[in-house]
Amino acid sequence: MGIQSIEDIVVRLRKRAEIRRQIATRKSVQEGKPDRIADLLEEAANEIEQHRQASAESDTAVNTRPIERYGPIEKSMVRAKFKVHKIESFAEPRNTGTVYMAPVYGKTGGDGEENSIFGKYTPSGQVQMNIQNPEAFKEFELGGCYYVDFTKAPE
After folding, report:
1. Average pLDDT for residues 87-102, to the nearest whole number?
2. What pLDDT was estimated at residue 99?
3. What pLDDT does 143 receive?
4. What's the CA gap between 129 and 101, in Å, rounded?
5. What is the value of pTM for the model shown?
6. What is the C-alpha to C-alpha distance for residues 69 and 149, in angstroms, rounded to an integer?
7. How far is Cα 81 from Cα 146, in angstroms, rounded to an integer?
8. Can you list the alpha helix ranges (DSSP code H) found in 58-124?
9. Where are the chain's structural domains?
10. How sure is the predictor about 62, in pLDDT bands with cuts at 50, 70 and 90?
């Protein structure tokens, strides 16, 4: 069900509630009392709108924007935010090693609100990378946060 369908159902639920409240032969209308069914229709419309808004806000956590530099515009990406919790350096070759990361969570750190959103959608997991490129290995620091982007690749 697309966004247009969701908007249509919200409009239809509200219209049905409005119609129910205007039917002169209904007991609730005659007595000037609330119509419980109309109230439920309004409540359902509000819940759908809130859910849609929350989904739109989560786009910062699960980003599906096109990745132009890696392929056709149809390709999409999933983004997560991870924090380095351990780094093991190898003696040889120098400036290489293993980086261990886990998803961010909660309202802690420099950008607690963003971490909270990412943590909601990627509450657990791990990334462990054995890095043999010294220049790449230097890019990671203990306690640092990094976006991890996943894009489907050809086999």
Report:
1. 90
2. 96
3. 92
4. 9
5. 0.50
6. 13
7. 6
8. 112-121
9. 3-60, 77-151
10. very low
